Amino acid sequence: MATEDLPRDRGRSRRPRSSFWPGHGTNRARTAVIGIILAGYAWAAGAAAPFSATALICVLIPGVVLAGLASWRPPERIPPPDRLDITGMSFWVICVAALFEWEAAAYRDNSPPWHPSLTDLVNPLIGPHILKSAAILIWILAGWALVRR
Amino acid sequence: MTMSPRAITIIGFAVVIAGLFLLEFLARRPGNRIPTLGQWLG
Q1: Is A51's Cβ below 8 Å from some Cβ in B?
Q2: pTM of the full structure
Q3: Would A8 be classed as within a structural domain?
């Protein structure tokens, strides 16, 4: 992973690489404004019909914006730990492998009713506009969390 | 009473996803050897 550029001396305070990004607990007004904008965007994107051109654009815009921010205005990155415990990590590997296997088995069989894929199970749950918008907002925030890694 | 394959599939997904949340919960406890999701993604 490309983490060689991250500082390892966690004892010292680090200055953000860009003043555009507020630290934790600072400038709550800006954070609130960004939150409102994201919630509004998620609400608008949630109204798009599935598999339409509008839905495609609504997915592409956050991706382009996050890629642009990561490239030209990168936030202060969260440094990874110096090492991972292999035993502790193995629990994650088992769970993630089980999830992928369960999904792959359903996908391979074309998601039959007796063994539906996770996406087919989740789709009806996020049918209502507000839940779909919440899912989009979580998706954007997860993308932002990945950009900071 | 026997469960249908569909119910078993749904329960399987629920168990695995609950396991992921449980791991994250355990990882955040002090002194635990399990890394958090953020740590191993980093």
Answers
A1: no
A2: 0.70
A3: no
